[in-house]
Automatic annotation (TrEMBL):
Main location: Golgi
Described function: Thought to be a Golgi-localized beta-glycan synthase that polymerize the backbones of noncellulosic polysaccharides (hemicelluloses) of plant cell wall.
Protein's name according to its UniProt entry: Cellulose synthase-like protein E6
Keyword Membrane: yes
Organism: Kingdonia uniflora
Membrane topology: Multi-pass membrane protein
Lineage, broadest ranks: Eukaryota, Viridiplantae, Streptophyta, Embryophyta, Tracheophyta
Location(s), subcellular: Golgi apparatus membrane
Pfam families according to UniProt: Cellulose_synt
PANTHER family linked to this entry: X-BOX TRANSCRIPTION FACTOR-RELATED
UniProt: UDP-alpha-D-glucose binding residues: 63, 92
Active site per UniProt: 92, 423
Sequence intervals crossing the membrane: 23-44, 495-514, 534-550, 622-644, 659-682
GO cellular component: Golgi membrane
The entry's keywords: Cell wall biogenesis/degradation, Glycosyltransferase, Golgi apparatus, Membrane, Transferase, Transmembrane, Transmembrane helix
Length: 694
């Protein structure tokens, strides 16, 4: 204690001071931090399995090469160690134009992949990225916009070259001399008659092949499997099987114990070249929209508790060209947001084609055994030591059509042959072998594709689906027969929603033909509005429609979208499903076999404009399907007018009371068919329905 100046000299009771040597410590801790990151990177990197990605294309006219390579580039740029990725372009069109486009893409990828990773951009399909608003916003990040402008220029130059060649229809000689691969086309007589063409465009094993930043690149392979006129090629299933294959010594032993022959022919192209434990299939029109999707899928496969029983992880099919009110009901949101997640609780969703990650073994026919464990890190040592040329030669043979003869490919192994929905039937067989599957819907869609833009395209696509699913129901693969005791009853019922699509045409046709005809004649088919029997009718009509409407709106649809969806269902039921039933019957009688009509992915300028404006495209030439649609629309209109006249003239006993439901059914049909009348009587554009053709 004291006073005055003495106080200042007092020392504080305690004092905290920074230690000396802070800089040294900081350097030390940074090195430890880097060390931990490297350890994690090492661990993480090594634990990730190899992934083989198959992109399918079938015709350079229907599926332009520029579309296919955009998909290829998007999957090459996944956030995944490139040395563990292999991308295969399966070209069923056997086209040198597609091959040329892929060569160009391989060069462009050296700039594109580092650009994507540096700025973490999405989506990684260049065409899709350059059409996003962010890519057009120059001001946000000056470095990004500068580099983006430079890379866009490169892309446009590549696009120009590819499109010029595509328009020309062949590859000019001066370009052909630049790559020996083109010489393969000297012996190609047609799309349906040629030898296997296989070119390893980027060899991931080669440490000299790097991108602009010096990082490794994914392996990139072009394959056009052999096709001969006297050999069935089994469409997409055949294309996939030429690639799939399996090389696993444990599995070979397991199989050879049962059938010695099998082990010899299990190797196919990708199992020879890269043998990734996981296989992803995407159609050429479905680019990757989420560069983390591979890692997302692996979270399921690699889960320590449940991962071993998962055979496939299916992502939903989303589309980037859906208009606000979805005129053709293509969004299938009720399927992907309600029905398939519903199946998830009963053993897993159906395999619906593109956007599906498979465990190689389960796709190749392995049965699930309780306690089965698979080490994703396991790599088959010493598998490929051959030089690129040797490897091309030895792998090519595996894509020959004679290679499959007398084997289990298309039956026990790989995707199943003979069904227009090779995906659904294959998934069902996998589930019946004891495996589970997963439906995964990340917030940012993993894949985006192209939905049909004309009525005819949509109806043809649905005919293929309905026919395939109906064939399954009537075959030994029927979910209630093959699935009995193997998959849950809930899942059997889940499958049957789709298997019963086709026969749905019969009640729909009845409702669209009988009530109007009887209305015209003045004969009542339903109870009077005053009768107690009217109540169940009213309840079912109101409740079923209200439920579907609520489900539709809950999943983000609009009211007009729901109305359009109802129309799309009506058209599908009266045409696609009817034709599916007829063709399935012919098929059962052995009078025909089902094919695979590839859905068109490009349309003319005026067709696209009408699609954007949500004007239905009937397409001026009158097919059987459009004739049915127009006839039913006219029948309902004619009968409604005739029937109403009869009622107003009091020619029917207690008119409205008796005929209320018939007028409602017929009136709804007329209201829903308004675009048909418009197309028949008022429209002048090329998308109208020519009344003269009826
Ligand atoms: O002989 C063929 C025929 C088709 N494809 C490819 O198969 C894919 C699907 O064909 P597409 O015409 O687009 O049919 P979609 O109806 O749009 O396809 C859905 O339905 C098919 C089953 O019908 C599934 O295989 C698809 O994955 C699924 O997206 C495309 O990449 C085609 O290139 C071939 O590789 N070879
Ligand atoms: Mn498609």
């Amino acid at each position: 204690m004291g006073g005055g100046g003495e106080e200042d000299e007092h020392l504080p009771l305690f004092e905290t001071k920074a230690m000396k040597g802070r800089l040294v410590y900081r350097v030390f801790s940074v090195t430890i931090f880097i060390g931990i990151c490297l350890i994690l990177a090492y661990r993480y990197k090594d634990e990730l399995p190899c992934v083989d990605i198959f992109v399918c294309t079938a015709d350079p006219k229907i599926e332009p090469p520029i579309l296919a390579i955009n998909t290829v580039l998007s999957v090459m740029a996944y956030n995944y160690p490139p040395e563990k990725l292999s991308v295969y372009l399966s070209d069923d069109g056997g086209s040198d134009l597609t091959f040329y486009a892929l060569l160009k893409a391989s060069v462009f990828s050296k700039q594109w992949i580092p650009f994507c990773k540096k700025f973490n951009i999405e989506p990684r399909s260049p065409a899709a990225y350059f059409s996003t608003t962010e890519s057009k916003c120059a001001s946000l990040d000056p470095v990004l916009s500068q580099e983006s402008a430079a890379i866009k220029k490169l892309y446009k130059a590549m696009e120009d070259q590819i499109e010029t060649a595509t328009k020309l229809g062949h590859i000019p000689e001066d370009i052909q001399t630049k790559h020996t691969g083109f010489s393969e086309w000297a012996s190609v007589t047609s799309q349906r008659d040629h030898q296997s063409i296989l070119q390893i465009i980027i060899d991931g094993r080669d440490s000299n092949t790097v991108d602009a930043d010096g990082c490794a690149l994914p392996t990139l392979v072009y394959l056009s499997r052999e096709k001969r006129p006297n050999h069935p090629h089994y469409f997409k299933a055949g294309a996939m099987n030429a690639l799939v294959g399996i090389l696993d010594f444990l599995y070979l032993q397991f199989q050879s114990a049962r059938n010695n022959q099998l082990s010899v022919v299990q190797l196919r192209v990708s199992s020879k070249i890269s043998n990734g434990q996981i296989i992803l299939n995407v159609d050429c029109d479905m680019y990757s929209n989420n560069s983390d999707a591979v890692k997302d899928a692996l979270c399921f496969f690699m889960d320590e508790q449940k991962g071993n029983e998962i055979a496939y992880v299916q992502f939903p099919q989303n589309f980037n060209n859906i208009t606000k009110n979805d005129i053709y009901g293509s969004k299938i949101d009720v399927i992907t947001k309600v029905e398939l997640p519903g199946c998830d609780g009963h053993g897993g969703p159906l395999y619906i084609g593109t956007g599906c990650f498979h465990r190689r073994e389960s796709l190749c026919g392995k049965k699930y055994e309780t306690g089965y464990k698979f080490d994703m890190k396991k790599r088959i040592e010493g598998k490929v030591k051959e030089s690129v040329n040797e490897l091309e030669e030895t792998s090519k043979v595996l894509a020959n059509c004679s290679y499959e003869e007398g084997t289990q490919w298309g039956k026990e192994m790989g995707l199943k042959y003979g069904c227009p929905v090779e995906d659904v039937i294959t998934g069902l067989s996998i589930q019946c072998r004891g495996w589970k599957s997963i439906f995964f819907c990340p917030e940012r869609a993993a894949f985006l594709g192209i939905a049909p833009t004309t009525l005819a395209q949509m109806l043809v696509q649905h005919k293929r689906w309905a026919e395939g699913d109906f064939q399954i129901l009537l075959s030994k693969y029927c979910p209630f027969i093959m699935g009995h005791g193997r998959i849950s009853l809930g899942l059997q019922m889940g499958y049957s929603i789709y298997c019963l699509w086709a026969p749905n045409c019969l009640p729909t046709l009845c409702y669209l033909i009988l009530p109007p005809l009887y209305l015209l004649k003045g004969i009542a088919l339903f109870p009077k509005i005053t009768s107690p029997w009217f109540i169940p009718y009213a309840f079912v009509i109101v409740a079923a429609n209200a439920y579907y409407l609520a489900e539709f709106m809950w999943r983000g649809g609009t009211l007009k979208g729901w109305w359009n969806d109802q129309r799309a269902w009506m058209f599908k039921r009266t045409t696609s499903y009817l034709f599916a039933v007829i063709d399935t019957s012919f098929n059962l009688l052995g009078l025909s076999s089902s094919g695979f009509d590839v859905t068109a992915k490009v349309s003319e300028q005026d067709v696209s404009e009408r699609y954007e404006k949500e004007i239905m495209e009937f397409g001026s030439s009158l097919s059987g399907m459009l004739t049915i649609i127009a006839t039913l629309a006219l029948l309902n209109l004619f009968c409604l007018v005739g029937g109403l006249k009869r009622i107003t003239l009091n020619l029917v006993d207690s008119g409205f009371e008796t005929m209320f439901l018939q007028v409602l059914v017929c009136g709804t049909a007329v209201a829903i068919n308004l675009p048909v009348y418009q197309a028949l009587f008022f429209r002048k554009d090329k998308g109208r329905l020519p009344i003269s053709g009826l």
